[in-house]
Amino acid sequence: MQRSDFSSKLSDESGLTKFLSFLRASPGARAGLLLLAWLAVWFIGGLVEYAHHASVWFPPAGLTFAVLFVVGLRATPILMLAAILVTIFTNNDYQINLQNIEVIESGIFFGIAHIVPYYAGSALLRWLTQTKQLTLPLSIISFLLIAATSALLATALVLVSLIFTGMMSSQELSATWLPFWIGDMAGIMVLGPLFFSVIHILYPQKTFKILEHIEGQLPVATAQYKYKLMISFTLVAAAMLLAKFTQSMDSSFAIFFLVLPHMWIACTENAFYNILSLALSSFLIVFLVDVLGLMNFVMVYQYAINVVATNAMFAIAIPALTASNHQLKTKVFTDGLTQTASREYLFQQATVEIRRAQWKNNDLCMLVYDIDHFKQINDVHGHDVGDKALKALSERVKQFLRPADILGRFGGDEFIVLLPETNVDTAMVVANRLLKEINGLQLINSEQLSISIGITQMQHNDDFESLFKRADSALYQAKRAGRNSIFQH
Ligand SMILES: Nc1nc2c(ncn2[C@@H]2O[C@H](COP(=O)(O)OP(=O)(O)OP(=O)(O)O)[C@@H](O)[C@H]2O)c(=O)[nH]1
């Protein structure tokens, strides 16, 4: 895959095309945009600053993780510059009054403490997903575990660096570490997947298996996607207004109902729209915490969005599992060469039809046909030609039958046709027409193909085996009678 479906979809739109081409051709502009984005999400994270130095929702962690995952160590200078700039801002904002050189040192320490754990985490995730044959659920659990662990490591390193450089006092540690960890974790788990995709559009030269799951299923959301989003947003607003007016911790837990619309989205929309909706809901929560003054409840909200996100993340696997389940079913139920029903499926379908016919007192007939001297065809013309003959013959028979009839390959060159609501006289007419039809075919070079057919009508106590046994013995008689003929039992 050279470029993802998502980026090519975006590229179809003209204004965006030019902007994307410009960014892709200009590493400087990309770096500038990355820096601006990092600073912007850092300021937005500040809306839910729970304790000094600790936002309970910290998008820069997700952005750093995603950038290091997609771009690698090349992104370090930009991340380092961002770390220094926000340290300068924090020094002024908290009125810490460090000297210029000390602020830059603190910024460098913060940068290292922030970047190292996320580089380690993203490199481990990349290694796991690129080199190991992980299933999608295993990739997701790896992502979640690595996100939680690297966020914890970043929390420890950053807080130690802040204390070491005099940006924070050690007394603040106990009140800071948990919201810090939760914030970084939310940044990676809830927003990281969206950042992965967006950065991958800007740096499209590499292919990552884990991103294919997110982007490969693009580009369309269902027509109902916006209504599902509206339901999520309404639920967020209603739960938060409830907390605002009751000011009770109990009512703040209503936010956990968010799992319902998000699981609905996760199970019915593709992965990209799933992670987009999670990011939007979490933005809305942060915005409303700020606007409605709900800082007292913010920890509940952050736990809720993390739980909702991890659940919804697992649901990324559902459309993929459904698709592979469908493929597996098709494989098991269809004969690969002739695209008729497989023996197993034929047996299942025939059993259902036989029971239905017995229940309703309907007629039912079974035809068994087998190509005449097929071994000779293989021997003279080769197995490939034999295969082609089997395919072409089956194609013809399928066209010839009614939609309700069931055609399946019993094995080798022997096929079964089940004719529901058909008595033996009509089945005989069908068999005669079939024989004629096949006689008219020139499937192999200039040679003609012929088949022999055995017919039987269902008796009241028949099952698949007994029905087949009679039809097969009729076929045997047809073969003994010189082939290219029909016998009834
Ligand atoms: N090309 C091809 N040949 C197959 C396939 N499955 C079975 N065969 C061959 O089909 C032949 C079946 O031969 P039989 O039905 O026993 O005998 P026949 O030569 O058709 O003779 P009669 O049935 O008595 O007319 C064997 O040679 C098998 O090897 C297949 O998927 N492709």
SSE inventory with pairings:
Elements (H helix, E strand, L loop, with lengths): L4 H7 L2 H12 L1 H19 L3 E3 L2 E2 L3 H12 L5 H18 L6 H32 L4 H29 L8 H30 L6 H7 L9 H22 L2 H4 L6 H10 L2 H22 L5 H17 L2 H17 L9 H18 L3 E8 L2 H8 L1 H18 L5 E6 L2 E7 L3 H16 L11 E7 L6 H17 L5 E3 L1
Parallel strand pairs: 6-7
Antiparallel strand pairs: 1-2, 3-5, 3-6, 4-5
EC number: 2.7.7.65
Subcellular location: Cell membrane
Protein name: diguanylate cyclase
In words, what does this structure look like?
It is a single chain. 40% of the residues are buried. The protein is built from 20 helices and 7 strands. Strands 4-5-3-6-7 form a 5-stranded mixed β-sheet, sandwiched between helices. It has a two-stranded antiparallel sheet with strand order 1-2. 69% of the residues lie in helices and 7% in strands. The two termini are 58 Å apart. Helix 2 packs across helix 3 (27-45) and helix 3 (27-45) runs parallel beside helix 5. It folds into 3 domains: 5-219, no CATH class; 232-333, no CATH class; 335-488, 2-Layer Sandwich (Alpha-Beta Plaits), CATH 3.30.70. InterPro entries: Diguanylate_Cyclase (IPR050469), GGDEF_dom (IPR000160), MASE1 (IPR007895), Nucleotide_cyclase (IPR029787), Rev_trsase/Diguanyl_cyclase (IPR043128). Its cofactor is Mg(2+).
